[in-house]
Amino acid sequence: MPSIAPRLARRFRLILAAAAIPFLAGCNMVVLDPAGDVARQQGNLILVSTGLMLLIIVPVMALTILFAWRYRAANRQATYRPDWDHSTQLELVIWAAPLLIIICLGAVTWVATHLLDPYRPLARTAPGQAIAAETQPIDVQVVALDWKWLFIYPEQGIATVNELALPVNHPVRFRISASSVMNSFYIPALAGQIYAMPGMETKLHGVFNETGQYTGFSANYSGAGFSDMRFAVKSLSDAGFAQWVAETKAGGGTLDRAAYLKLEKPSEKVPVQRFASVEPQLFDAVVNLCVEPGKMCMHDMMSIDAAGGAGIAGIRNVRSLTYDKFAARGTEPGYWGKRYVGALCSSPLLAQDDRPDATPVDLAPLTGAGLPSPGEPDSAAVALASRPAPRS
After folding, report:
1. Is pTM beyond 0.85 here?
2. Considering the domain boundaries, does residue 175 fall inside one?
3. Principal place where this protein is found (predicted)?
4. Which one is predicted more confidently, 289 or 355?
5. Which of 8, 44, 82, 266 has the fewest C-beta atoms under 10 angstroms from its C-beta?
6. CA angle 74, 11, 27 (to 5 degrees)
Protein backbone atom coordinates (compact mmCIF):
# COMPACT_ATOMS: atom_id res chain seq x y z
CA MET A 1 0.00 0.00 0.00
CA PRO A 2 2.70 2.63 0.77
CA SER A 3 4.11 2.24 -2.77
CA ILE A 4 0.72 2.85 -4.42
CA ALA A 5 0.15 6.34 -2.93
CA PRO A 6 3.04 8.08 -4.77
CA ARG A 7 1.83 6.61 -8.09
CA LEU A 8 -1.68 7.90 -7.52
CA ALA A 9 -0.37 11.33 -6.56
CA ARG A 10 1.78 11.43 -9.70
CA ARG A 11 -1.14 10.47 -11.92
CA PHE A 12 -3.35 13.04 -10.24
CA ARG A 13 -0.82 15.81 -11.00
CA LEU A 14 -0.65 14.72 -14.65
CA ILE A 15 -4.45 14.82 -14.91
CA LEU A 16 -4.52 18.34 -13.44
CA ALA A 17 -1.83 19.51 -15.90
CA ALA A 18 -3.77 18.05 -18.83
CA ALA A 19 -6.99 19.66 -17.62
CA ALA A 20 -5.28 23.08 -17.50
CA ILE A 21 -4.33 22.99 -21.20
CA PRO A 22 -7.76 24.16 -22.51
CA PHE A 23 -7.70 27.09 -20.09
CA LEU A 24 -4.19 28.08 -21.15
CA ALA A 25 -5.33 28.05 -24.78
CA GLY A 26 -7.51 31.06 -24.01
CA CYS A 27 -4.61 33.21 -22.78
CA ASN A 28 -4.01 36.46 -24.64
CA MET A 29 -0.75 35.97 -26.55
CA VAL A 30 -0.90 39.37 -28.25
CA VAL A 31 2.87 39.90 -27.99
CA LEU A 32 3.57 36.74 -30.01
CA ASP A 33 0.44 37.00 -32.17
CA PRO A 34 -0.05 40.75 -32.80
CA ALA A 35 -2.06 42.55 -35.45
CA GLY A 36 0.75 44.75 -36.80
CA ASP A 37 3.76 43.97 -38.96
CA VAL A 38 6.28 45.72 -36.68
CA ALA A 39 5.02 43.94 -33.57
CA ARG A 40 5.03 40.64 -35.45
CA GLN A 41 8.67 41.09 -36.40
CA GLN A 42 9.45 41.85 -32.77
CA GLY A 43 7.57 38.72 -31.69
CA ASN A 44 9.53 36.65 -34.22
CA LEU A 45 12.73 38.10 -32.80
CA ILE A 46 11.71 36.86 -29.35
CA LEU A 47 11.03 33.38 -30.74
CA VAL A 48 14.32 33.22 -32.65
CA SER A 49 16.31 34.45 -29.64
CA THR A 50 14.57 31.98 -27.35
CA GLY A 51 15.22 29.12 -29.77
CA LEU A 52 18.92 29.97 -30.04
CA MET A 53 19.28 30.08 -26.27
CA LEU A 54 17.42 26.78 -25.88
CA LEU A 55 20.04 25.15 -28.11
CA ILE A 56 22.42 25.30 -25.16
CA ILE A 57 19.95 25.30 -22.27
CA VAL A 58 18.08 22.11 -23.22
CA PRO A 59 21.24 19.95 -23.66
CA VAL A 60 22.67 21.25 -20.39
CA MET A 61 19.45 20.43 -18.51
CA ALA A 62 19.26 17.00 -20.15
CA LEU A 63 22.90 16.22 -19.38
CA THR A 64 22.42 17.34 -15.79
CA ILE A 65 19.69 14.72 -15.35
CA LEU A 66 21.72 12.14 -17.25
CA PHE A 67 24.87 12.64 -15.13
CA ALA A 68 22.90 12.63 -11.90
CA TRP A 69 21.30 9.33 -12.88
CA ARG A 70 24.37 7.66 -14.34
CA TYR A 71 26.73 8.59 -11.54
CA ARG A 72 24.34 8.03 -8.66
CA ALA A 73 25.74 6.33 -5.59
CA ALA A 74 23.82 3.13 -6.27
CA ASN A 75 25.33 2.67 -9.75
CA ARG A 76 28.43 0.57 -9.16
CA GLN A 77 29.05 0.19 -12.92
CA ALA A 78 29.79 3.90 -13.51
CA THR A 79 33.36 4.80 -14.45
CA TYR A 80 35.27 6.35 -11.56
CA ARG A 81 38.31 8.52 -12.46
CA PRO A 82 39.38 10.61 -9.48
CA ASP A 83 42.53 11.87 -11.27
CA TRP A 84 40.80 13.07 -14.48
CA ASP A 85 41.15 16.85 -15.02
CA HIS A 86 41.18 17.68 -18.76
CA SER A 87 39.66 16.79 -22.13
CA THR A 88 40.45 18.86 -25.22
CA GLN A 89 37.39 17.59 -27.10
CA LEU A 90 35.10 18.39 -24.17
CA GLU A 91 36.64 21.86 -23.76
CA LEU A 92 36.04 22.60 -27.44
CA VAL A 93 32.38 21.63 -27.15
CA ILE A 94 31.87 23.56 -23.88
CA TRP A 95 33.33 26.80 -25.27
CA ALA A 96 32.53 26.61 -28.99
CA ALA A 97 28.78 25.96 -28.69
CA PRO A 98 27.97 28.98 -26.47
CA LEU A 99 30.33 31.17 -28.50
CA LEU A 100 28.55 30.31 -31.76
CA ILE A 101 25.17 30.95 -30.18
CA ILE A 102 26.32 34.34 -28.84
CA ILE A 103 27.60 35.27 -32.31
CA CYS A 104 24.24 34.35 -33.85
CA LEU A 105 22.32 36.25 -31.17
CA GLY A 106 24.55 39.29 -31.68
CA ALA A 107 24.06 39.25 -35.46
CA VAL A 108 20.28 38.83 -35.21
CA THR A 109 20.00 41.54 -32.56
CA TRP A 110 22.19 43.99 -34.49
CA VAL A 111 20.14 43.61 -37.68
CA ALA A 112 16.81 43.82 -35.84
CA THR A 113 17.93 46.87 -33.85
CA HIS A 114 18.37 48.84 -37.08
CA LEU A 115 15.40 47.42 -39.00
CA LEU A 116 13.01 47.88 -36.06
CA ASP A 117 14.31 51.26 -34.95
CA PRO A 118 11.17 53.12 -33.73
CA TYR A 119 12.41 56.33 -35.41
CA ARG A 120 12.87 54.57 -38.76
CA PRO A 121 10.02 55.14 -41.26
CA LEU A 122 8.34 51.93 -42.37
CA ALA A 123 9.46 50.35 -45.63
CA ARG A 124 6.54 47.91 -45.79
CA THR A 125 3.08 47.33 -44.38
CA ALA A 126 3.37 43.53 -44.49
CA PRO A 127 5.79 40.93 -45.89
CA GLY A 128 6.07 41.55 -49.62
CA GLN A 129 3.98 44.75 -49.49
CA ALA A 130 6.35 47.69 -49.89
CA ILE A 131 5.19 51.24 -49.19
CA ALA A 132 5.15 53.51 -52.22
CA ALA A 133 7.46 56.50 -52.10
CA GLU A 134 4.57 58.96 -52.40
CA THR A 135 2.61 57.40 -49.52
CA GLN A 136 2.39 59.71 -46.52
CA PRO A 137 1.93 58.16 -43.08
CA ILE A 138 -0.88 59.23 -40.79
CA ASP A 139 0.43 61.61 -38.13
CA VAL A 140 -0.74 61.21 -34.55
CA GLN A 141 0.59 63.41 -31.74
CA VAL A 142 0.57 61.71 -28.34
CA VAL A 143 0.75 63.41 -24.94
CA ALA A 144 0.99 61.39 -21.73
CA LEU A 145 -1.01 63.19 -19.05
CA ASP A 146 -1.68 62.34 -15.39
CA TRP A 147 -3.26 59.78 -15.76
CA LYS A 148 -4.65 59.58 -19.26
CA TRP A 149 -3.56 59.78 -22.89
CA LEU A 150 -4.23 62.61 -25.31
CA PHE A 151 -4.17 61.94 -29.06
CA ILE A 152 -4.09 64.81 -31.57
CA TYR A 153 -4.72 64.23 -35.28
CA PRO A 154 -3.22 67.35 -36.95
CA GLU A 155 -4.30 66.39 -40.47
CA GLN A 156 -7.90 65.69 -39.43
CA GLY A 157 -7.95 68.59 -36.94
CA ILE A 158 -9.42 66.49 -34.10
CA ALA A 159 -8.27 65.14 -30.75
CA THR A 160 -9.33 62.37 -28.38
CA VAL A 161 -8.63 61.29 -24.82
CA ASN A 162 -8.09 57.58 -24.08
CA GLU A 163 -9.19 56.54 -27.56
CA LEU A 164 -6.98 55.90 -30.58
CA ALA A 165 -8.41 54.97 -33.98
CA LEU A 166 -6.27 54.05 -36.99
CA PRO A 167 -7.02 52.80 -40.51
CA VAL A 168 -5.81 49.33 -41.35
CA ASN A 169 -2.82 48.86 -43.69
CA HIS A 170 -1.78 52.53 -43.39
CA PRO A 171 1.61 53.46 -41.91
CA VAL A 172 1.32 55.59 -38.79
CA ARG A 173 3.87 58.04 -37.41
CA PHE A 174 3.58 58.94 -33.72
CA ARG A 175 5.13 62.04 -32.16
CA ILE A 176 5.17 61.43 -28.41
CA SER A 177 5.71 63.68 -25.39
CA ALA A 178 4.47 64.06 -21.79
CA SER A 179 3.15 66.82 -19.58
CA SER A 180 4.80 66.13 -16.21
CA VAL A 181 6.58 62.82 -15.58
CA MET A 182 8.01 60.08 -17.77
CA ASN A 183 5.63 57.44 -19.09
CA SER A 184 5.91 54.64 -21.61
CA PHE A 185 3.64 54.44 -24.67
CA TYR A 186 2.89 50.82 -25.53
CA ILE A 187 0.40 49.12 -27.84
CA PRO A 188 1.43 45.43 -27.87
CA ALA A 189 -0.64 44.63 -30.96
CA LEU A 190 0.93 47.45 -33.00
CA ALA A 191 4.60 47.99 -32.11
CA GLY A 192 7.07 48.13 -29.26
CA GLN A 193 7.04 50.59 -26.37
CA ILE A 194 8.82 53.92 -26.30
CA TYR A 195 9.12 56.49 -23.55
CA ALA A 196 7.14 59.73 -23.33
CA MET A 197 9.10 62.45 -21.54
CA PRO A 198 8.28 66.09 -20.73
CA GLY A 199 10.21 68.66 -22.71
CA MET A 200 11.24 66.00 -25.24
CA GLU A 201 9.78 64.31 -28.30
CA THR A 202 10.13 60.66 -29.24
CA LYS A 203 8.86 58.92 -32.36
CA LEU A 204 7.31 55.57 -33.18
CA HIS A 205 6.21 54.02 -36.47
CA GLY A 206 3.73 51.19 -36.87
CA VAL A 207 0.94 49.69 -38.95
CA PHE A 208 -2.12 47.54 -38.34
CA ASN A 209 -2.71 44.60 -40.69
CA GLU A 210 -5.96 43.44 -39.10
CA THR A 211 -9.08 45.24 -37.95
CA GLY A 212 -10.14 44.83 -34.35
CA GLN A 213 -10.28 46.25 -30.83
CA TYR A 214 -7.05 46.39 -28.84
CA THR A 215 -5.64 48.03 -25.73
CA GLY A 216 -2.75 50.40 -25.11
CA PHE A 217 -1.29 51.43 -21.79
CA SER A 218 1.63 53.00 -19.97
CA ALA A 219 4.44 50.53 -19.26
CA ASN A 220 6.24 52.87 -16.84
CA TYR A 221 4.98 53.61 -13.31
CA SER A 222 3.97 57.25 -13.02
CA GLY A 223 2.00 57.68 -9.81
CA ALA A 224 -1.29 56.87 -8.11
CA GLY A 225 -3.43 56.59 -11.26
CA PHE A 226 -0.94 54.53 -13.25
CA SER A 227 -2.88 51.24 -13.11
CA ASP A 228 -5.87 52.83 -14.90
CA MET A 229 -3.76 54.64 -17.51
CA ARG A 230 -5.14 52.56 -20.39
CA PHE A 231 -6.77 53.52 -23.67
CA ALA A 232 -8.87 51.84 -26.35
CA VAL A 233 -7.23 51.18 -29.72
CA LYS A 234 -9.40 50.67 -32.80
CA SER A 235 -8.08 49.29 -36.07
CA LEU A 236 -10.70 50.28 -38.65
CA SER A 237 -11.25 49.97 -42.36
CA ASP A 238 -10.82 53.10 -44.47
CA ALA A 239 -14.58 53.68 -44.48
CA GLY A 240 -14.80 53.00 -40.74
CA PHE A 241 -11.99 55.44 -39.99
CA ALA A 242 -13.59 58.14 -42.14
CA GLN A 243 -16.89 57.61 -40.30
CA TRP A 244 -15.11 57.80 -36.93
CA VAL A 245 -13.48 61.11 -37.92
CA ALA A 246 -16.86 62.48 -39.09
CA GLU A 247 -18.51 61.47 -35.81
CA THR A 248 -15.74 63.13 -33.83
CA LYS A 249 -16.09 66.35 -35.80
CA ALA A 250 -19.85 66.30 -35.33
CA GLY A 251 -19.51 65.91 -31.57
CA GLY A 252 -18.25 69.47 -31.02
CA GLY A 253 -15.76 70.75 -28.51
CA THR A 254 -12.48 72.61 -28.98
CA LEU A 255 -9.14 71.71 -27.48
CA ASP A 256 -7.42 75.06 -27.05
CA ARG A 257 -4.74 75.99 -24.54
CA ALA A 258 -7.21 76.78 -21.79
CA ALA A 259 -8.97 73.43 -22.28
CA TYR A 260 -5.63 71.64 -22.32
CA LEU A 261 -4.55 73.20 -19.02
CA LYS A 262 -7.75 71.91 -17.43
CA LEU A 263 -7.29 68.50 -19.03
CA GLU A 264 -3.68 68.40 -17.84
CA LYS A 265 -4.69 68.34 -14.18
CA PRO A 266 -4.33 64.87 -12.64
CA SER A 267 -7.43 62.67 -12.87
CA GLU A 268 -8.05 58.93 -12.82
CA LYS A 269 -10.28 56.58 -14.82
CA VAL A 270 -11.10 59.28 -17.35
CA PRO A 271 -13.79 58.28 -19.89
CA VAL A 272 -13.25 58.73 -23.61
CA GLN A 273 -13.44 62.35 -24.74
CA ARG A 274 -13.48 63.76 -28.27
CA PHE A 275 -12.73 67.24 -29.58
CA ALA A 276 -13.97 68.42 -32.96
CA SER A 277 -11.16 70.94 -33.36
CA VAL A 278 -7.68 71.55 -31.96
CA GLU A 279 -5.68 74.72 -31.58
CA PRO A 280 -2.81 74.67 -34.09
CA GLN A 281 0.69 74.15 -32.70
CA LEU A 282 -0.68 72.89 -29.37
CA PHE A 283 1.56 69.82 -29.40
CA ASP A 284 4.64 71.92 -30.13
CA ALA A 285 3.72 74.16 -27.20
CA VAL A 286 3.44 71.06 -24.99
CA VAL A 287 6.87 69.85 -26.07
CA ASN A 288 8.38 73.30 -25.50
CA LEU A 289 6.68 73.64 -22.08
CA CYS A 290 4.94 76.89 -22.98
CA VAL A 291 1.23 76.12 -23.03
CA GLU A 292 0.62 78.69 -20.26
CA PRO A 293 -0.11 82.13 -21.76
CA GLY A 294 2.90 84.40 -21.74
CA LYS A 295 5.41 81.65 -20.99
CA MET A 296 8.60 81.59 -23.06
CA CYS A 297 9.03 78.43 -25.14
CA MET A 298 12.18 76.37 -24.81
CA HIS A 299 13.15 76.87 -28.45
CA ASP A 300 12.89 80.65 -28.01
CA MET A 301 14.98 80.47 -24.85
CA MET A 302 17.61 78.35 -26.58
CA SER A 303 17.68 80.80 -29.50
CA ILE A 304 18.26 83.71 -27.10
CA ASP A 305 20.96 81.76 -25.27
CA ALA A 306 22.65 80.91 -28.57
CA ALA A 307 22.73 84.64 -29.38
CA GLY A 308 24.40 85.46 -26.07
CA GLY A 309 21.37 85.85 -23.80
CA ALA A 310 19.01 88.72 -23.05
CA GLY A 311 21.47 90.43 -20.70
CA ILE A 312 20.80 91.90 -17.30
CA ALA A 313 17.76 93.68 -18.70
CA GLY A 314 15.90 90.36 -18.67
CA ILE A 315 16.91 89.20 -15.21
CA ARG A 316 13.45 89.88 -13.79
CA ASN A 317 11.50 88.68 -16.79
CA VAL A 318 9.76 85.96 -14.80
CA ARG A 319 6.16 85.05 -14.00
CA SER A 320 4.62 82.87 -11.30
CA LEU A 321 3.08 79.64 -12.53
CA THR A 322 -0.66 79.48 -11.92
CA TYR A 323 -1.27 75.75 -11.76
CA ASP A 324 0.39 72.69 -10.31
CA LYS A 325 -0.60 69.10 -9.62
CA PHE A 326 -2.11 69.64 -6.21
CA ALA A 327 -2.16 73.43 -5.69
CA ALA A 328 -1.46 76.68 -7.51
CA ARG A 329 1.99 77.05 -8.92
CA GLY A 330 3.84 80.05 -7.56
CA THR A 331 2.08 80.02 -4.18
CA GLU A 332 5.29 79.26 -2.34
CA PRO A 333 6.59 82.17 -0.22
CA GLY A 334 9.55 84.13 -1.50
CA TYR A 335 10.37 85.71 -4.81
CA TRP A 336 12.07 82.66 -6.28
CA GLY A 337 9.20 80.20 -5.90
CA LYS A 338 8.08 78.07 -8.84
CA ARG A 339 8.37 80.54 -11.70
CA TYR A 340 8.97 80.62 -15.41
CA VAL A 341 10.54 83.00 -17.90
CA GLY A 342 7.99 85.25 -19.60
CA ALA A 343 7.85 85.48 -23.35
CA LEU A 344 9.54 88.64 -24.57
CA CYS A 345 6.75 89.34 -27.06
CA SER A 346 3.82 88.57 -24.77
CA SER A 347 0.82 90.88 -24.50
CA PRO A 348 1.04 93.73 -21.93
CA LEU A 349 -1.99 92.19 -20.24
CA LEU A 350 0.21 89.21 -19.36
CA ALA A 351 2.99 91.26 -17.83
CA GLN A 352 1.50 91.05 -14.35
CA ASP A 353 1.76 88.01 -12.12
CA ASP A 354 -0.53 85.21 -13.21
CA ARG A 355 -1.69 84.46 -9.68
CA PRO A 356 -5.36 85.26 -9.14
CA ASP A 357 -4.60 87.26 -5.99
CA ALA A 358 -1.64 89.14 -7.41
CA THR A 359 -1.68 92.92 -7.44
CA PRO A 360 -1.44 94.54 -10.88
CA VAL A 361 2.02 95.53 -12.02
CA ASP A 362 2.74 99.12 -13.05
CA LEU A 363 3.14 99.00 -16.82
CA ALA A 364 4.95 102.35 -17.00
CA PRO A 365 8.38 102.32 -18.71
CA LEU A 366 10.90 100.67 -16.41
CA THR A 367 14.10 102.30 -15.22
CA GLY A 368 16.63 101.04 -12.73
CA ALA A 369 18.93 98.07 -12.42
CA GLY A 370 20.28 97.02 -15.78
CA LEU A 371 18.03 99.36 -17.80
CA PRO A 372 19.08 102.59 -19.47
CA SER A 373 17.40 105.83 -18.51
CA PRO A 374 14.96 107.29 -21.06
CA GLY A 375 16.80 109.10 -23.82
CA GLU A 376 20.19 107.59 -22.98
CA PRO A 377 21.88 104.93 -25.09
CA ASP A 378 21.99 101.41 -23.75
CA SER A 379 25.48 100.93 -22.31
CA ALA A 380 25.36 97.21 -23.04
CA ALA A 381 24.46 97.88 -26.67
CA VAL A 382 27.27 100.46 -26.94
CA ALA A 383 29.77 98.01 -25.47
CA LEU A 384 28.60 95.29 -27.81
CA ALA A 385 28.85 97.59 -30.83
CA SER A 386 32.37 98.69 -29.89
CA ARG A 387 33.58 95.12 -29.43
CA PRO A 388 35.97 94.10 -32.26
CA ALA A 389 34.51 91.69 -34.75
CA PRO A 390 35.61 88.05 -34.26
CA ARG A 391 38.12 86.62 -36.64
CA SER A 392 36.72 84.31 -39.27
Report:
1. no
2. yes
3. membrane
4. 289
5. 82
6. 120
